[in-house]
Known about the structure:
Structural class: alpha/beta
Number of helices: 15
Strand order of the largest sheet: 1-2-10-7-8-9
Number of strands: 14
Largest sheet: 6 strands, mixed
Order of helices and strands: HEEHHEHEHEHEHEHEHHEHHEHEHEEHE
Shape: elongated
Strand content: 15-25%
Amino acid sequence: MLTLDQIYQAxxxxxxxxxxxxMIYAPEFAGNREIYLKTENLQLTGSFKLRGAxxxxxxxxxEQKKAGIIACSAGNHAxxxxxxxxxxxxxxxxxxxxxxxxxxxxxxxxxxxxxCLVKGTYDDAHxxxxxxxxxxxxxxxxxxxxxxxIAGQGTIGLEILDQLKDVDVILCPVGGGGLIxxxxxxxxxxxxxxxIYGVQAANAPSMFESVKKGEAVTLKTVATFxxxxxxxxxxxxxxxxxxxxxxxxVTVTEDQIAAAILRLIERQKLVAEGAGAVSxxxxxxxxxxxxxxxxxxxxxxGNIDVxxxxxxxxxxxxTSGRETTLQIALEDKPGQLEGVSLIISRCGGxxxxxxxxxxxxxMPISSCVLRVGMExxxxxxxxxxxxxxxxxxxxxxxx
Length: 399
């Protein structure tokens, strides 16, 4: 049974291990909403997962420690387990989905764990870890559905209440539910008036659907670049706690998550992974009642694969109206490109790519298609450019 005393004990165990991460005020970050960022992306292993993993492993018996430990993870829990096990001199094996970011796989190995890559998703890695545990007799360290793990994550709730005593709302990323369970239990036990909302990726809404249905739902597939919360089935313990202590669940799209990552980079100089940025996406785009409320966005991790970061930034630019591509039907004659360029320049846009296509079978033989990529300031500026081009007699093709 999870207790508040257990969470306080976890805080004591973790005081020399986990950072008390900063609470950063972010003015004008999401319109007129008063936003604060709890920066667990700056934790020692790049995510909050160190807290639960370390506390759980610290509570094992000497016999269990000698037998070794096994875990499954998309990457962040893996690093927490690896660091904790290595510091305590325990052999660790981590099952990870083969699609996990290379950076997370290599970081886990570097921290001293043996990594077993499993084809498929987190849930497939979980099944493999359970199989290996039965064969070896090692102790399985569940990433979220465990009271000790939940208690470790709950130490974040204690820190939030200490750092922002008059907090009104906490937005928390949700995968299997370990983080929000610990935070909600701790915060609601000490201040029941604080509202707690969970946020999931719309393409991996297992907890969202489970809460709505009133029982655990297993998704057939999950498809999100927020790999840290790509969980098909929530935990039994976590679902029970979420239903009791969490005030609501929302989902955010892939484009909204990308826009949140971009906003964090540009406005706060913080790098967040997809899972870590969903709380920020909810603050920016959801219709949750946040006006006039001191709202904490829990930025749960920053271990994003650099190989996809540029693509995420590009998607964020498009979603925020900062980059766009227009397709324009032109007469194939001299001066047309100059005319288009002058209008874009006059409106303040910056051309970054041009493609001239003569072979479109749907166009008249004497016509061509011009694709122009532009840097822009906002959707309003994009619309101004479209209007000015149309006014000048150019025809914009819409998909």
